[in-house]
């Protein structure tokens, strides 16, 4: 189960880095990734039945994560939620593959439904690094699109001066 250890290392690194150095969108993304991981831990079937049937609990967790990231796609002044949402769409589609073909091999179901989580954590690390780079280069990095509703109190990245 070395792949679990690798994922947990990536998870701790990406979420920790985003909470420590990320802007509000990166922190929200980190919360979504962490919440999805914890939700998946409790939603997955027991080891004896894992990946043999549709993992309904995981489908719900993955769809919830996708919905949250799609909100970031629309509201955040960032590009990284787009590839993250694309990976989550593929992950959710993996669950529907099992519905379309119940005889799909458990390994293939795992591959189509879980492999993308590794890349999601990598995207979060790159996103946080890019945020820090923009702050260093420009002195600021607006978190939200101009069309998003926001308040000065909730986002310190927005200047209070005209």
Helix content: 55-70%
What is the number of strand segments? 0
Q: Structural class, from helix and strand content? A: mainly alpha
Largest sheet: none
Shape: elongated
**Share of residues in strands:** under 5%
Q: Averaged pLDDT, please?
A: 89
Overall radius of gyration:
17 Å
Q: SSE string, helix = H, strand = E?
A: HHHHHH
Domain count: 1
Output the number of helix runs.
6
Task: Report the span from N to C terminus.
Answer: 55 Å
Uncertain regions: pLDDT < 50 for 5+ in a row?
A: none
Provide the descriptors you would attach to this structure in a database record.
membrane; transmembrane helix; 162 residues; 0% strand; transmembrane; elongated; mainly alpha
Task: Describe this structure as you would to a colleague.
Keywords: Membrane, Transmembrane, Transmembrane helix. Residues 140-151 have a biased composition (Polar residues). Residues 138-162 are annotated as: Disordered. The chain crosses the membrane at residues 28-49, 56-74, 107-127. The chain has helices at 2-21, 24-43, 56-75, 81-100, 106-114, 116-138. It is mainly alpha-helical and 162 residues long. The protein starts with a helix and ends in a 24-residue tail after the last helix. It has one domain.
SSE layout and pairing:
Elements: H1 2-21, H2 24-43, H3 56-75, H4 81-100, H5 106-114, H6 116-138
